[in-house]
Each structure stands twice: as structure tokens, then as C-alpha cells.
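Work package 3, deliverable 3.1, input record:
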Amino acid sequence: LRSRDAQFDEFVLGSSPRLMRLSYLLVGDREAAEDLLQDVLERLYVAWPRVGNPEAYARQALANASANRWRWRSRRREVELTQEHHPAVPGPEPSGRDALLAALATLPAGQRATVVLRFFEDLSVEETANALNCSTGTVKSQTARALPKLRELLNTEEHCR
Amino acid sequence: MTHDLTTLMREATDGLQPPPDLLAVVRRGGRRRLARRRSATGALALLAALAVPVAVVGAGSEDTTSATTASFAGPLGDGRTHGNLAEDDRYLAEIKAVWSAWRNSHPWREQYSKAAGDVRVLWAGTTPAGPAALLAQQIDVPHGIGGITGGTRDAHAYIGTGADGPRVAHATFSVDGRMPQAWYVDPAHRVLAVVDSGRQRGITYRWEYEPNGTARRTFAPLKFTDGISIAVLPDGIDRYTVHVADLPFRTHGDLVGIANVELDGEAARLGLHWNDPARQMHLLLPIGDAEQAIGSARDTRTAQRVASEVQDALDANTHQAALTTHLQDWIVYGRTHDGRQVRVFERQLDNDPARLYALLDGDLLDYGPIDRAAALPVQVDLPDGVGWIVAQYGADLEYRTASSGWTDAGRDAALLPASATAARVVTSERTAIIPLG
């Protein structure tokens, strides 16, 4: 049997890039996302022997922390998204990323977590409900409230999924 | 839209990598937490061995995020109907009919319409708002409807009383055995039914604020009768400020979900709204020579540093039982005439009115609820005769003492001498004179 540390290391090395992206979308700020991910992974280390699905555990913990823990919610406003000492994330045009983050920032934390889990993590309604510890009806209503706002702010076209 | 949203999210985070030292940092932090936990558990075990028998419920379960709650592991899971209406066949038939009608008429009826089993009445009883009940039924959910995974699922219906008799207050499918464990029986949300899980549960109606800035909740243990506890909200208590939790309360993970309350987006923002919501940092209002001594209000790093000081002080003094918190985006900052660092700001917990705080050289002070309609909503009489901090965003400020006329104090926020007897607040709309002290 591999040691606890070896298993944990393998998980962190394999999953942390994806979890970092999830954390970033949940809190909208790189530094806060790193802090949040670090906190969750430390808790995961403690819970490791009892965790059946570490990916699900980490996802749930990130979502709950961002949606329910006020410190992340309030701290996200402290940082300019374009400040110099946070290097730009490579990938899309900065304007597209900034527009997305600005649009997500207009949502209450629960709505934000809901749409990120549904449409970034591609979770079902009930998987999202499970991750956020709420009812499926709440997930649906949060999604229904969030999408029109995002649609308006991002000016995206309607597509069926 | 959703396709585009998925693409946008993936593009926006493409290439984003965690810090290179993440693994080392979390292993170090994890080991530290583990060591603390073992130490704490060992101490509890020792106490238990030396003293009277102690129930160490949940000792060491520091991480509650992965904990699952069996849907009816408590008294309601024994297969019979509980409550004082358990033998009332007329009421039981009525609520089953209401539930059936709801399933077949609800906008999501495609999910709920195909019953896979009989309705089980877990509890039916009287409450001060009328009769109530909790039902469970297996439902065959079609694949591909509303994102619910198809198959046989457990649905739960929370029955209350409306103007026309029994009504479905809420219904949901449980996930991994988890479901909301409480519901408001009446449309006015004054009577709350809480399910007995077999663990001790408590309810809290309000925050308690202390002059030293501490904010806490006290959970009063609930008394369960035949599987349910009924709580009537005191007058003036807002449903969004009521919380139920498993005891002992430690973290947000101990809070119990209430079926027919959606917290997010519902809490009113009761602060001063001085900052532009689109602005991604706090509005800093310097007093005295703060900009020289500490940094420009327009500088992001200054905003971060000042906001972190405030947040850390609040973190250290606040109970974890808040579902919503607004740190309302503005902070007066600077130094007093004797060189002490001072910050003044507001903070709202749940649906309570926003309150005014000062942080003076690390000491947090609570100045009570903010009067949003006041001409001078921020009036902080600092201790030790240090002076007054006053603020009204967008206003020109002046003050006078017993021996002097009006003196200009600048705009937005000011540190006034302790001898100030009145402040004058001049905006484009009005001029007001506010006595101090």
C-alpha cells in the first residue's frame, strides 16, 4: 500500500490545476483563490483516510467555502483584477476574462457557485445540490436567476446545451 | 448561453496554474492541523478516562464539508408515522391528495409525476400555525429532465398550512440521503418545524453584539417530541436571521438547511452604500495625513492592507454562524493625533442592520447600528479623549468647539478634536448641524 503522503501527493499534483481554476472562478481573484485552495487541501490532508472521493470532497469544500464563508466573499472586493503584481492569466483575450469575472462578481455567492459548478464543472443539478448542501430546487432557482444576468452582461447568444 | 458560458469559463482559466510550492505548503499545513487534532483528541480521551463519562461526539471531525447526514437516521426513520395526527385518517388522506396534486401540476411535474412507491407519512402533527406533515415517496425520474439523474429517487414533501388548508411548502429529492431538515409551516414564516436527527440541535434567533466588537450567536437546545421540534419566531425576528444547527456548533457545516428559505440574494443590504458596487476594492476615506503616512486611497496595495487589517480583526471576534456577511466596502483610515492607527467601517451580519465599528491600534470597538437616514451617519467618539471621527460621503464637513467658530474639516471623513461640540454637514441637498457628545 502506498503511504498516505504518496497518495495525497499524487492527488494534489494531478488535480490542483483544475481545482485552482475552479477556485479562481468561485472567488474571482487569484490570490484569494490560492488561499482558498490551500485551506481546502490542508483540510483534505487531515481527512484523507476517510475521504472516498477526494476530487468531489475538494470541489464541495471549495464551493461551500466560497458560497458560505463570508471571509472569501468580502475579501474578493479588496483586489483590483488588473493589478500589476498579479500576472495576467495566459489564454483568452484579457477583456473576455475580465468581462466574465466582472459578470460573475455581480452574482450573489450562491448563484455564482451554482453556475460555476453547473457550467464549468459540468455537474448535474443534483450533484450541484449535493456539493452546495442545498435542495435541487434551490439549484434550479439559483441557475434561473443567474443566467439572465450573465446573459445580459456578457451579451452571449442563446444556445441549447 | 450555457454553451458559451462553459466556453468562456474554460477559456478564462486556461493555463492558470497553482503556485509551484502548493504541494509543500499544504502538506506542511495539513501535518500541522493533524498534529493539533491528535493533540486535542488525546486530551479529550484523557479527560474522559479520568472524569465522568463524556460523550465525545464528533471529536476530531474538523472537516465537516464531507460529512453526510442520513435522511432519517433519527426517530422518524423507524417506518411508522409519528406525530399527534398519525391516526387522523382524514388529514392523512388530505395531505396525500395535496401532494399528489402538487406532483402532477407543478412546473417540474415531469420529474415528480411518476410515483414508484406509496407515500410514507413520516410525521403529521399540529403546530401553532395549523397542521403540518413530512412525507417521503420514491419517484421514477426520467432521464434528461432538468439535469436530474434519472432513476428511482427519494422525494420529500414538506407540508404546511395555507389559507385554504394543507399546502406543499417545499419538495425536493434527497441527495446521498441529505435533505433539508426544517421547514416553515406557514406562509408568513413564523412557525418552524425541525426534524430530530438523533443528535442535539439548537436554534438561534439573533446575533449578540458586545462593546468590544465581539459578535456571537447562542444556540438554545431544541426539545423534540416524537421526532419534531416546533419553534415559533419571536416578534420582530426575521426568518433570514434564524439558524438551526447541530450542536455543539463549530462551523458552517453544522448548520441545518431550512427547506423553504433561500438565503442567497434575499438578505437586504442595510448599510450606507457609499461604494460603487462595480468597484473591485474598498472605498478608502483618509483622515488627517493618512495618505502620507499610510498610502493613497487610490492605491490597490493600501486598500488591500487596510481591508485585511479590518477583516482580520473581525475574523478574530466573530462567531462562524453567519450565512451572509457584507463588509460594506468603505473604510475611514488614518492616525490619531497621538499616533495611533485607526480605522472606522461598517459590517452587516445576515439581515441585521449594519453596525459601525472602529479599530483603534488593534482594539475593535462596536458603535452600534447605523442610522442610514442620519445627516451624519458616522459619529465615533474615540476613547481616551482622542477625538471624534465623523463621515458622510460626498459632504463638506466643519466643526466648532465651545471657544471657536466653524472650522473646515475637509470632505467625506474627518478626525475632529475631542473638544468639538458640533459638526456641520454640507451637501448639495442640505446643511445640517449635528451636536456632538
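Chain A touches chain B through 94 residues (CB under 8 Å).
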